[in-house]
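Sample intake sheet
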Amino acid sequence: MSRILVVGGGPAGHRLAERLRHHGHRGPVTVLGAEPEAAYHRPLLSYVLAGRLTPEALRLPPLPGVEVRSGTTVTHIDRARRQVRASGTVHGYDVLVLATGARAVVPRFRGVTGPGVTVLRTAADCERITGASVVVLGGGPLGVETAAALAARGRATTLVCAAPHPLRKRLGEVASGLLTEALERAGVTVLGGRTVTAREPGGVLLDDGTRLPADTLALCTGALPDVGLARAAGLDVRTGILVDGRLRTGDPRIHAIGDCAEHTGRTVAGVEAAWAQADSLARILTGHDALAHRSTPPVFRLRTDVADVACMGSPDAFADPAVRCLTFADQDGGRYARLALRGERLAAAVLFNLPDAIASLGELHRHGRLLPSDRLGLLLGGPPRPASTVLGTPEDALICLCNNVQFQTLAKAWRAGARTVTALATATRATTGCGGCGSEVAGLCVRWERERRHDGERTP
């Protein structure tokens, strides 16, 4: 049986190894991870910052029959010998899969490499945020989620972003303005149209000369696919590592998945897309699927309680003269929607504090289905769904809106042995979209474990 070597110990590499065994691969599978920790569910790091989950709760389940080497940095790929060198060791392969993820973009200014400055990509980075005051630089999703999480912990938090409002390019003027208001109500000071020009002891200097107190400066200034290893090995690289429909590079023995891969001309960040690629590649490598991988439509959702924000499709769709745009605005109620329709199908959407619409439109968008004629009813939805922590939750109650995971699906996975948040995420994909259901899923774990201990092996 072929030897499969996976470079990258994050969610994509972990998922691939698990699915390879699931689909019957009996040969050796080795995963090399650069971080010293065992694999964990990276998308929920903001929940650790907010104090809602412990780092231990994010750990992904062990991989039986898979050799996992943490703290192992790969330095070279020898394509001729089919070997990689890593941390003083050499590993052979028949099939090599690159799941190297992305690296943080670090801006250049005075003091950026000094003490009290950190990027936010790993669990170790979260531990570097110390002190009572924090400045978060960056108006993208990570900046918003980080600032909201730190404010929830009682830290004096300032979010500095170059645009007038965070996420302005993705959300548009109205929705990004509503997001600023929601962040400020949650205790975050938002400074739009500004940037940091220097890190000084105990503070940062802005481009207008303002000095802000800051025990820590958190850089949330974007990420780029980590392609250095692939480029050095002579593989084709554009933004990401170029792969074909079977997720192969120009070397047929080397594949790439996750944030580092560029498939059909684009890179797609996020664990849901990475897991979909891992699932497809596992089936391809085990002979279960000869078809090409099909990319999932892009969906973005903020992992924060300050506002329920989702985007579907590309923001460029709103500028397409072939689409019709529909807008719903309830600024007093803090609700907003903008839809781009191509024919009777959804090309793109921006949704703010419309959770039922997020679930419904997400399903229609994912499967390319026709929208119902009652657009307003679709946006406003029906009665709110029951809280999952209430005893007697209906079996069909929707817990994870992003991935359409019902209560009964989670209960079945629990009975099968998935008894942590990350185990349930692996089994059902709950929490792997926006992560907004993370606390609900954690509550179910606590509830079911308490019932099990009280009644013996009683299950939900």
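Comment: Residues 4-103+223-285 form a domain with the FAD/NAD(P)-binding domain fold (CATH 3.50.50.60). The chain has four domains: 4-103+223-285, 117-219, 308-380, 398-454.
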